[in-house]
Amino acid sequence: MGIENYIGQARDQFIRKSLMSDEFLDFMKENMLPIDTLMANYHCAIMEIETKFNVLNKQFSLQYDRNPIESIKVRVKSMESILKKVRRKNIPLTLESIEQNIRDIAGVRVVCSFQDDIYLLADCLLNQDDITLIEIKDYIKNPKPGGYRSLHLIVEVPIFLQSEKKQMKVEVQLRTIAMDFWASLEHKLRYKKNIPPEEASLLAKELIECAEISSSLDMRMEKIRNRITKAALQPQSNNRNTLRAFHVSCTIENFQRPFLCAFIHKNGRSAVYHLAVCIKPQAVGYSPPSCISCISICSHSVSDISITFLTRWLTMTGS
Description:
Layout: H1 2-19, H2 22-64, E1 69-76, H3 79-89, H4 95-101, E2 106-112, H5 115-126, E3 132-138, E4 151-160, E5 165-176, H6 177-190, H7 197-233, H8 238-241, E6 242-249, E7 259-266, E8 272-276, E9 294-298, H9 302-317
Helix pairs in contact: 6-7
């Protein structure tokens, strides 16, 4: 016991005098600065890519009234993960080697609504003149043996520092909600320990089946979306387009009880309506055409429209 206590006290003294000294802390700070700077640069690169996707999502929302992006997740690899990859790839333990050989330190995961949104967003990103494509891996068209599906891009994006522009690599993963659901659960289940080999083999087969079901669901939902879009673009009959008809009666000069009928037709998503102005024939002694004019107007109440168009018709006929 005496020797153990002596060793423990000697260890504590060494730590306090050596590892906790001001000189050692200064040494650590000086040597950690390049690592901290590199990690900060990766964070900046992530912000650049994330902003680009947010801008695209905003544009699609305003221009096409849809949001192809459901969510965006970002991460920078921990130093522990980086060191494990250095050991696995057997590369030199230098910052230059790490930056050159490990291309997924900065990661951006974009979760999309539909599979065709993945390729649409990828094209939009790669068409930007400050983005350089380094590598592409399409695990959607060519899934991994375990069932994993996603589109992976390795891109370079510039970050603008105080006195220089620096190109940084970022891994971009694009996947649907179903793909992300499957990948997240598969990742958790893969690291469960103490599973017998026979059971592990059965679970692997079941995960592959789930991946195929997930892919089938993506395709089915995309077909439903396309059918809805196609149906919305087809012209509809007048009966289906007619929202409501109303009559307004009033007394103007020689007109005893002229009736104004306005049939309001909504034109797509815009706030534009078309009105047909009609006059009851027996009220004027002759039969004018059933539809005098058809004019597009915006943002008026029904009563204002009725009076306005009746007055215009009377002026037009010289009454």
